[in-house]
Design brief:
Largest sheet: 10 strands, mixed
Radius of gyration: 20 Å
Shape: elongated
Number of strands: 10
Length: about 280
């Protein structure tokens, strides 16, 4: 059974990511953890409207609002996407979003976090885009970011850019392979080079990928561009992959030349669902 964390700020964008999640795993037994975080501010509008005569504290008002909001989200899912394979747990939490994501991933052994890349824009509401970008950078388990307005489409094509500077293991690749198998998809392994041949260790990593994906549709590509970012966007423009997947390797040019600038662009602009896989052993 998969355990999937679904943060929500109750915006339509957040629900759009939830819709994507339940449809992506519609054939699999899953427990979805619906998470809403709240941080009461003493003199906001809720406090002004709050009656001092009530025995409830301000914190309890926020908690009840969070709980009720999560119940509404759950009921909406059950109505629009009924599925006997899916169960739901509700988590209202007085906490900061990214800290709570980390806590829930560790305490529940979460397999995947799925969240929207943009959210509500009202002054009193959380700007989910910023939080998602931070969550991507700090991911301790795979995280799938769903762009605003992205309708679900069963993935037929997954783009996986790599610099071959990672000693790949099963933990890095098992979710990618799972998505390929479950959706009869194809993985496109893209290397952007700058006129230099692969080094011996890179060749070994490429061979590891070839061996791991030998039983599923896959293809290797090599593109010469000025930047890795340019290569990714060029490939996306030509092939229109359904998911863009990356490993956040912090010890190679991937982090220095690709990861930081691309995260900001993807977090707020890209229309393709974006899967980030942490490098090394997952800190769960």
């Amino acid at each position: 059974m998969k355990k999937i964390l679904l943060p929500t700020d109750f915006s339509e964008n957040a629900f759009n990511a939830i819709k994507y999640a339940v449809q992506l795993f519609q054939k699999e037994k899953c427990t979805f953890f619906l998470l809403n975080t709240y941080t009461p501010v003493l003199y906001d509008s809720d406090y002004i409207l709050y009656s001092p005569a009530s025995s409830n504290s301000l914190d309890e008002v926020y908690k009840n609002n969070s709980q009720n909001g999560l119940e509404n989200v759950k009921n909406r899912i059950l109505k629009e996407y009924p599925n006997e394979l899916h169960s739901y747990k509700l988590i209202p939490s007085f906490s900061l979003l990214n800290e709570e994501i980390r806590e829930q991933v560790q305490s529940h052994n979460i397999d995947l976090v799925i969240m929207g890349t943009q959210g509500a824009t009202g002054a009193a509401q959380i700007l989910f885009g910023t939080h998602t970008v931070h969550a991507i950078k700090r991911a301790i388990c795979p995280l799938l970011a769903i762009p605003s307005g992205c309708d679900f489409k069963a993935p037929e094509s997954i783009l996986f850019p790599t610099d071959y500077d990672i000693n790949y293991n099963r933990e890095h690749l098992k979710l990618l392979k799972h998505l390929v198998k479950e959706n009869n998809a194809k993985i496109h392994i893209l290397h952007v080079f700058f006129g230099y041949p692969l080094e011996e260790d890179q060749e070994k990593s490429k061979k590891t990928l070839a061996n791991y994906f030998e039983d599923v549709p896959h293809q290797f590509y090599s593109i010469e561009k000025n930047t890795v970012t340019e290569g990714i966007y060029e490939f996306q423009k030509e092939h229109s992959p359904d998911i863009l997947a990356m490993i956040s390797n912090k010890h190679s040019f991937f982090e220095n030349l690709l990861f930081r600038p691309v995260i900001n662009e993807i977090g707020f602009r890209v229309k393709t669902p974006f899967l980030v896989i942490p490098s090394g052993k997952f800190n769960k």
